[in-house]
Amino acid sequence: MHEMIRQDCLPGDSLTPKLLELVEESMLLEEPKDRKSARVLHEKFVKILGTFEQESGLSSSMLSPLPNEVDRSSTLNRSNEETLQPQSPGPAASKMGRFKDGLKRGVGQAAASIAALRNSPTTPELPPRRPVLAPIQGHGEPRSMSDPTPENAMNVPSPTISGPAFPHRHSLVVPGLGIRSPSATSSVASFESHLVPSLDNLYLSLAEAREWKMGKKAYDLTKARDSNKIISSLQAELVRREHIFLVETSIKMKAHAARVLEAFDTLAYIAKKDKNKVQLAFTSTLEEKIHGSTEISPLMKVLQECGYDQLGCFMEEKLTWLVDNILIERLVPETLPPSTSRRRPSDARPLQNHPISLIVFTDGRWGDDTDGAVGVQNAIQRLIDCVKQHNLPRTRIMIQFIQFGDDEIGKRHLKYLVDYAKSQNCDIVDTTSIDGNICSMMIGSINHKHGSEEVESPNNGLPRSFAESEGVVTNGDGLS
Question: Domains in the chain and their CATH numbers?
Answer without folding.
Answer: 2-62 (no CATH), 206-470 (3.40.50.410)
